[in-house]
Amino acid sequence: MKSKSKRPQTGFSKRGAADVSEAAGWLAEQNIEEIECMVPDLAGVARGKIMPVRKFLTTAAMNLPLSIFYQTITGDFPDLEGIVGTVQSDTDIFLRPDFRTLAAVPWATDPTAQIIHDAFHPDGRPVEESPRQVLRRVISLYHEKGWKPVIAPELEFYLVEKNIDPDYALKPPVGRSGRPETGRQGYSISAVNEFDGLFEDMYEYSEAQGLEIDTLIHESGVAQMEINLRHGDPLELADQVFMFKRTIKETALEHDIYATFMAKPMAMEPGSAMHIHQSIVDGSGRNLFSDPKTGEPTDLFFSFIAGQQTYMPAAVSLLAPYVNSYRRLSKGSGAPVNTHWGFDNRTAGLRVPPSDADNRRLENRLPSSDANPYLAIAAVLACGYLGMVEGLKPSAPVDTDVSNDPSAELPYSLIQSVIKLERSEALNAILGPAFVTAYARVKHHEYETFMRTISPWEREFLLLNV
């Protein structure tokens, strides 16, 4: 790996401000010159503007066209007629900063800050298509019941050699030994140490932004890593995942390699997941999944599981948002392909990890690392919420290998998943019909774009044989 040519800014204080006045003081104290004003789009990509701090502090709101929430991963736009129309999609929405997300951009060579924004229409209504608003909407339903969700994401990714020609397969990068990893080194400390310089910078940058990394491990794939974030508020953790993805990508580039959150970047290696641990507490912080007297699981816990079993097939396109995601969610891949649940059973899509009563939780193992964190977290919490308010009952827990179980299967493709989401009245109601319509239209367009590409497999087996 190559070292950085110019040392970026470091030593910033933790992120967050109460209001514009406190933000102005922090920006002045840190000698910040520019600020990146961003909003996560449907793909979890940062859209927005970079402006001088003085302009940011004197601007009530930043304006961008509504179409930023209708842009596909290829940069195109689907047919918007029947949804918002071409004219309306190009009208301005207004982005207001969430000062709690104010943080440094520690890899920038000049003092720079970043802040995440929420989107509103001119009349003050939240923009329903905004992923951050979708998650806020789901969280508010919990709060109306006196419940508070707590989540902890686990995020897998690969380090790969730079790849400037997409026709060539990805390769593992060369570490400090001068050799690429050739065998799977799951949980190996020495394999992580191959990239010590990169991870030291990653930790430093994460600390400068207030990102609370719990653990770093080497996963089972070649140069595949996993970062666990500490548990907390769903919106706060979604923000942290959003910021962490930017952080590790930028850090890897400084070391002349790529970090990728593509769900299945290499054909013969495991896919990358974003497992989401979930629990629900009351206003006093008591875990509602455990009986306060006996410590045994409660009916609410089992209903939460049942909700995810029942509604997850219709929510899969939010957890596996691209055609590549379904290469990970395939039999024999090591990823779960079902909605079974079990106690410490990693072949089930829903796993109850070993824990005491205070820490009882459910791990959803279905989301891919390519998922938008706001939408993936909103989806799993929405399914669990529906189970609790409807009093659903789960199936019996499984204690056997259900990797290839033909029952409780998930949709096999992006299009199947999107159609299920469109047809789910319950998820349309809880996530917002405007969002579901926008998301489905974008995903249909992405799939159509993908289908225009002829793969090497087709040329190899169909060119002369059919």
What would you note in describing this structure?
- The chain has 466 residues and is α+β, with helices and mostly antiparallel strands.
- Helix content is 34%, strand content 17%.
- The chain has 14 helices and 14 strands.
- The chain has helices spanning 20-29, 53-58, 85-89, 131-144, 189-193, 196-209, 234-254, 299-319, 325-328, 373-390, 414-423, 425-431, 433-451, 456-461, and strands at 34-40, 46-52, 62-65, 92-97, 103-104, 112-120, 148-160, 213-218, 224-229, 258-260, 274-281, 341-343, 350-352, 362-364.
- The strands form 2 sheets. Strands 7, 8, 9, 10, 11, 12, 13 and 14 form an 8-stranded mixed sheet that branches. Strands 1, 2, 3, 4, 5 and 6 form a 6-stranded mixed sheet that branches.
- A hairpin with a 5-residue loop joins strand 8 and strand 9 (224-229).
- It is globular and about 60 Å long.
- 47% of the residues are buried.
- Pfam families: Gln-synt_C.
- This is Glutamine synthetase family protein.
- Residues 131-466 form the GS catalytic domain.
Summarize the structure.
The chain is of the alpha+beta class and 466 residues long. The protein is built from 14 helices and 14 strands.
Q: Keywords, please?
A:
466 residues, 8-stranded mixed sheet, 6-stranded mixed sheet, 14 helices
Strand content: 15-25%
Task: Give, in order, the helices and strands.
Answer: HEEHEHEEEHEHHEEHEEHHEEEHHHHH
Number of helices: 14
Could you say which overall geometry the principal axes of the C-alpha atoms support? globular
Keywords: Ligase, Magnesium
Family: Belongs to the glutamine synthetase family.
Protein name: Glutamine synthetase family protein
InterPro entries: Gln_synt_N_sf (IPR036651), Gln_synth/guanido_kin_cat_dom (IPR014746), Gln_synth_cat_dom (IPR008146), Gln_synth_gly_rich_site (IPR027303)
